[in-house]
Design goal:
20 helices, about 45% helix, activator, Helicase, Ruva Protein, domain 3, five-stranded parallel beta sheet, DNA-binding, alpha/beta, transcription, about 475 residues, Rossmann fold, 3 domains, about 15% strand
Amino acid sequence: MSGSPHILLAEDDNAVATVIQASLEGAGYRVALAETRAARDAMLAGAAYDLLITDVVFPDGNGFDTLADALANTDGCSVIVVSAQNTLDTAIRAARLGSYDYLPKPFDLDELLKTTAAAMHREASAAEPAQDPDGGEQLLIGRTPPMQALYRVIARLADNDLAVLIGGESGTGKELVARAIHQSGQRAQRPFVAINMAAIPRDLVESELFGHERGAFTGANARTEGRFGQAEGGTLFLDEIGDMPLDAQTRLLRVLQSGEYSPVGGSEVRRSDVRIIAASHRSLPDLVAEGRFREDLFYRLNVVPVAVPALRERRGDIAGLCRHFMVGAQDRGLPAKTISAAALKLIERQDWPGNVRELENFVYRMCVLARGDTFGVSDVRAQFVTATDESGGDVDGIDGAIAGWLADRAPSATGALYDDLLARIERPLFEYVLGETGGNQLRAAERLGINRNTLRKRLARHDLP
């Protein structure tokens, strides 16, 4: 094409289209607009464009449904998908239909310009667009920026078999991420086999992975297929890989290098055709430095690192997760419940060190123990207290809790005892009152009997909203 690169912008929201058009034209691009799916497809058929920037939801239908056919007759037109449907399925469908990138709304215009420039420099792919994947169960819940970044990484793993190493704290959902990678990939119709390395006795690790022949060791009364054999053609998920013994690491490395293995006690050499996804809540580089994990195995597994965010890093997803778990509770035969806005705000302010798993258990416990059809602030607060007591907290009330804290803290206190204790008491007090008042600082200050400006200063000191 001669002149400035030509972009087709397909966006049904006039205000959004105007802003994007102005930004692109300011960067030197020529921009044509389409407000419907039909108009987009007709314009692609009638003129040549360097790049298509398209929304997904249009008044006349889903933009994905006709995208493959519309692009089939273009001459290497790159695609950027922008959408407010910020789900993993959207990211995967965008990738499968040959898009250069997917940007969830709202996005930064600078990010769009950088992505546009990168797409312009990419060589046009000669491959035909892949078929749209079938819809399936939603494994991952969340629309916050950390989850959008995760979805984009998963989508880029869909059409390859590269090894993946998933990192994240316990309870963040690393196995769900592994399943999402498997289900979005080319091996989706083949087995997904998961094994937790921390749960296997040291002496049985190789047998579990590679199988064993009858009589291979004491108690081996029959020939048993290992996890590699069970996962043939599919995906093998090695959870808590950091807990694998060093000798088993050596055997695993040999299999990854050669693609071959033999069952314990056997001489038959088998070819392995599996995708390896590993995960650990520990820092594998630290384990390598300590001599507890093979460096060469780490590099074999860490081809594509994937980081799963902690729940406290995506608090905006907590409401959706709570609703999802309450539906799941009904499927398990528990009573149908709802949750008040004030109670939800209180839940969102917690740190959740056990992450999504802890939140799930909390919601189920609430469904069983909370009175009435709606969770209120008092219900939530009572369960937080119960959880603290069950984990070893003092059950004799505030006096006992303070006495226990002082017994541990006072000997090392150096003039900060009063401020430290006050800070420990203030935070839960403010969280409770803000939860009771729905986050209204004026009403919270009145209930506390302090000035609103004083409350705002104290909230800022505790990093509370």
